[in-house]
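Continuing the series of single-chain predictions for the mutant panel. This is the parent chain; the variants come on the following pages.
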Amino acid sequence: MAKETKISSRVADCWNTVGVWSRAQEKCEKLAEHVHCRNCPVFLEIGHSVFERVAPSGYLSQWRKEISAQENRDNFKNNSVLVFRVGCEWFALPTNILGEIANERTVHRIPRNMNRFISGIVNINGEIKICYSLSELLALNSVDGINEREDKYKRLVVIELDGKHYVFLVDEVKGLAWYGDSELLPVPATLNADNALLLAGSINKFDHQIAVFSINKFQEKLEGAVS
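Parent structure:
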């Protein structure tokens, strides 16, 4: 430490006062030998002393806190979603709008119903609800490119938005997943442009690329199906 103080007091920042970065008429005599201050032993020794200094009190602990906080932000998985399949595609909806997941049951056709977006009506806990057809709403192929799944995998999903219940049949429920905002990726290229507008992005979970619905856009699509 004493050596560092001696050097600092003797040369200060000579590279700025008489060195290559100064505007002085008379330059340091050592430049004739070293050409540039970077090659001078004095400059190198001062540089080494900077890196060898003891950090100020609390400096390292503060940086540890900053790095730890950044890692926690990057790893924070603040979004919980239900993952399900319709046709060949995988989708996700936030769990905070999830009302119920029920086993498949009879969906009764509505007489003279010409709306392809409506599969029919279904009994949910003693109440009659409209059952929407997501495959029609999203213009999806049923099961092209994958094996047929048994009916036992099908489920009725009930969600609640603004006090309204929406029911639709899915081909398979995979389960719940968590992801952080930094994990959200662009929408899958396999979806058409109209469907892409309904999505907030996609995530990679369960070895699948899963499209995450934008709730507001999804609700608008459901409402538009019956208007």
